[in-house]
Amino acid sequence: EAEDSKCVKFEGGLRPEIKKAVGYLEIRNFATLVNKSRIYEEDSKASSSYYKARGDKRNAGQNCNKPYDKPKVNQEDKQNATYERETSGGGSPN
Fold first, then answer.
1. Exposure class string for 46-76: b at 16+ Cβ within 10 A, else e
2. Which DSSP letter does residue 66 get?
3. Do residues 40 and 22 lie in contact, with contact meaning Cβ atoms separated by under 8 Å?
4. Dihedral (C-alpha) 47, 48, 51, 55: value to the nearest 10 degrees?
5. DSSP 8-class letter at 25
């Protein structure tokens, strides 16, 4: 019974995210509870730092132009393309 009260008191002092993770396991062995809580905290920190590092690389190029943007066409090229269409003879004969 003393072991149970130590576990309950220990769980009460944990951060909410750790308490949520290990609380449902209902561990009533103090050494096991401490160990599982420590492991969860270490894994959580490692996971968080991994995704933060990954996110920085992934979001670094978001302000760049997209590779599929239309190229800008100057006015002279537009006029040449229109002239070529009109003189290519693709229309119906009259």
1. eeeeeeeeeeeeeeeeeeeeeeeeeeeeeee
2. P
3. yes
4. -170
5. T
Cα separation, 48 vs 54, in Å, equals: 10
How many C-beta atoms surround the C-beta of residue 7 within 10 A?
19
pTM of the model: 0.55
DSSP at 93: -
pLDDT classification of 68: cutoffs 50, 70, 90: low
Q: What is the pLDDT of residue 55?
A: 79
d(CA 59, CA 20): 31
Q: How far apart are CA 66 and CA 73, in angstroms?
A: 17
The length of the chain, given as a count of residues: 94
Can you tell me the distance from the alpha carbon of 92 to that of 94, in angstroms, rounded to the nearest whole number?
7
Q: 27: pLDDT confidence band, cut at 50, 70 and 90?
A: very high
